[in-house]
Specification:
With 219 residues, the protein is an alpha/beta fold. 55% of the residues lie in helices and 17% in strands. Bound molecules: erythose-4-phosphate.
Amino acid sequence: MKFFIDTADLDEIREANDLGVLDGVTTNPSLMKKAGGADFHEHIFRICEIVDGDVSAEVTATDFDGIMSEGRTLAGIHKNVVVKVPLIEEGIKALKAFRSEGIKTNCTLCFSAPQALIAAKAGANYISPFIGRLDDISNDGLQLISQIVTIYQNYNFDTEVLAASIRHPMHVVACAELGADVATVPLSVIKKILKHPLTDVGLEKFLADWDQYKESVSA
Ligand code: E4P
């Protein structure tokens, strides 16, 4: 399973990348607003310089020509840029056109299995189902992951399932069990994954015993 970090914050990206297990980055306009980089294109380039993996940068146009124009520019920033395209009619047309131009895409704002099926048929490289936002409205985000994984396997689509809008470590575990290809997670969730009280207590005891052992052999 690939791990992407879901942020545009350069310090967070550096911190996650230093762990050595980061495979990519996802950004969106809201995350850019939070991170506050003055120049969007320059900011995406800086992310690509930190992480050696796919970096999703989202278009904001909603018409075909606008999406294509923005997407081509974004793809020209760095070889690792993946153009993030909203799952709307014009976006579906653009996915197919980007595919024919050799530009990688991440189809975003997916909330249903038939949406994911269409995106795969259009040639998206990644589909991003937003599981947390579905859970937020009393739907089942994980069921959607399960449906998409099954459908893609049934027809050998090469579109990768990128579980997005992840809220906590158990979302990551469930997505891994269901066979999602990628989980994009905020830094806060990565930190929660690393934390276990028994690890902390166990380490404290090992270090205390080590100190006592050293004292005993040096006496
Ligand atoms: C990532 O590609 C998505 O934009 C992101 O995971 C959405 O997360 P949110 O629902 O926490 O905003």
